[in-house]
Amino acid sequence: MEIDTETTLKIARLSRIKITDTESDDIQKDLNRIVEFVKKLGEIDISGVSEFNFGETYLKDMREDSIIINDNTDDVLKNTKNKNQDFFTVPKIVE
After folding, report:
1. Which of 41, 43, 73, 92 is deepest in the core (most CB within 10 A)?
2. Range 5-42 has CATH code 1.10.20
C-alpha cells in the first residue's frame, strides 16, 4: 500500500491539522516509511515464539520487600530558612 498525496491530505483533514505542500511531501514520505516498516514486521518468522501473556506474575519471580527507615529530615531542612517544625513553608498561592 502506497500513501499518495491525496491520502496524506485526507489524513491531515481528518486529524484537523493544516499542512503546507512541503509538509505534505515530508509527511507522505514518513507515512510510506512506516508502512514499509510494518510490512517488514509482517515478514518476521514468529512460529517458534510463544504468545506473550502480559500481566501474569508469579510470586517466586517477585523480589522480597524490605523496609528501610531514612529519617534525614534535619539534613534536608538545614538548607532552608522557611521551615515550621519538620516542614517547608511556602508562600500562599490560593486565596
Report:
1. 73
2. yes
For the cut 90, the answer to whether the pLDDT of residue 26 exceeds it is yes
- In this structure, are strands 87-88 and 83-84 parallel, antiparallel, or unpaired? antiparallel
User: In the chain, pLDDT over 90 holds for what percent of residues?
Assistant: 42
pTM above threshold 0.85: no
Written as one string, the DSSP assignment of 32-47 is HHHHHHHHHHHTS--T
Phi/psi at 34 (5° precision): -65, -45
Residue 92 pLDDT > 90: no
Report which DSSP code applies to 46: -
Name which of 54, 62, 7, 63 is nearest 30 in CA terms. 7
Counting beta carbons within 10 angstroms of the beta carbon of residue 31, is it exposed (0 to 12), middle (13 to 18) or buried (19 or more)? middle
